[in-house]
Design brief:
With 203 residues, the chain is of the alpha/beta class. The chain contains 9 helices and 6 strands.
């Protein structure tokens, strides 16, 4: 694969989705894509961040990760999102960024982007599927093409079997309960493969 530009856009308070984003980056690079890993801006008040040592430490550890811009969306052929669930929905930080994309949408610049999503929660039925599906709703409005992993690889079953996108359960100490690295990498490679096909077909 070549010439596919992938943006991996994530929000992570204590590190789980940053880890998923890094695995997605690795998988996509193995597939030959050019990859940018980007975070959405943190909106939480400093008092909330300071009250959670893990949150504060992760924010400091990832201070050099560039924040996503609208130019990154325009640049990308494909986008993978990685988010924690917030009451079965995307976190406000990600929603705030998505809500700024109206201008690009109006100009048709988000149509035919190939997108895929991953999610995490602190328990196995904590809203991961609903979060991914709610994010995809925005993508349908964009006119994007959703590249869900489905059950296209054995790793999906080993990671818990979420066909909408890889999801993981992280305990209070940040330990992942499922082994999802292979599934994340497969999802990234699949996203790149679909994007390459779309890109070639439109040339």
């Amino acid at each position: 694969m070549s010439n596919v530009k992938l943006a991996v856009i994530y929000y992570s308070s204590t590190g789980t989705n940053h880890k998923l984003a890094a695995w997605a980056e690795a998988g996509a690079k193995e597939a030959g894509a050019e990859v940018k890993v980007l975070k959405v801006p943190e909106l939480a008040p400093q008092t909330a961040i300071d009250s959670n040592p893990a949150w504060k430490a992760h924010l400091e550890a990832t201070k050099d990760v560039p924040e996503v811009t609208l130019n990154d969306l325009e640049w990308a052929d494909a986008i993978i999102f990685s988010v924690p669930t917030r009451f079965g929905n995307v976190p406000a930080q990600m929603k705030q960024f998505l809500d700024t994309t109206g201008g690009l949408w109006f100009q048709g610049k988000l149509a035919n982007k190939v997108v895929s999503a991953m999610a995490s929660a602190s328990n196995s039925h904590g809203g991961q599927e609903a979060t991914i599906l709610s994010l995809y709703t925005t993508m349908y409005h964009w006119g994007a093409i959703v590249a869900a992993p489905g059950y296209t690889d054995q790793s999906s079953f080993e990671a818990g079997g979420n066909p909408y996108g890889t999801s993981v359960t992280a305990d209070q100490d940040g330990n992942l309960k499922e082994n999802v690295e292979a599934a994340v990498k497969h999802q990234a490679k699949r996203t790149v493969t679909v994007a390459e096909s779309i890109k070639k077909g439109m040339q």
